[in-house]
Amino acid sequence: MSNHLEIDLTKIQAQTKKLFSDEVQAEFVELMTETEQLIWQLQQLSRQSLNQNSEAAQ
Questions:
Q1: Long-range pairs for 20-24: beta carbons < 8 A, 24 or more residues apart
Q2: Residue 44 in contact with residue 36, Cβ under 8 Å?
Q3: What's residue 41's pLDDT?
Q4: How much is the pLDDT for 7?
Q5: What is the rounded distance in angstroms from the CA atom of residue 49 to the CA atom of residue 43?
Q6: Cα distances (angstroms) measured from residue 43 to each of 5, 8, 19, 40, 50
Q7: Which residues contact 20 (CB under 8 A, 6 or more apart)?
Q8: Which domain covers residue 32, as residue numbers?
Q9: Is 15 domain-assigned?
Q10: pLDDT over 50 at 30, yes or no
Q11: Is 6 inside a domain boundary?
């Protein structure tokens, strides 16, 4: 099942290369990287908030 998913992603990447210029692809990668960083920051803030809430409850 995992292999099937990887094959599908490869096909999607190949189709994307046909549809979009290198510049658009580079912008997309940059946006995805920024998104991953924002998600990581949100996870950190969420953990801090949970820790503060549990400390306040004690």
A1: none
A2: no
A3: 94
A4: 64
A5: 10
A6: 26, 29, 34, 5, 10
A7: 28
A8: 21-58
A9: no
A10: yes
A11: no
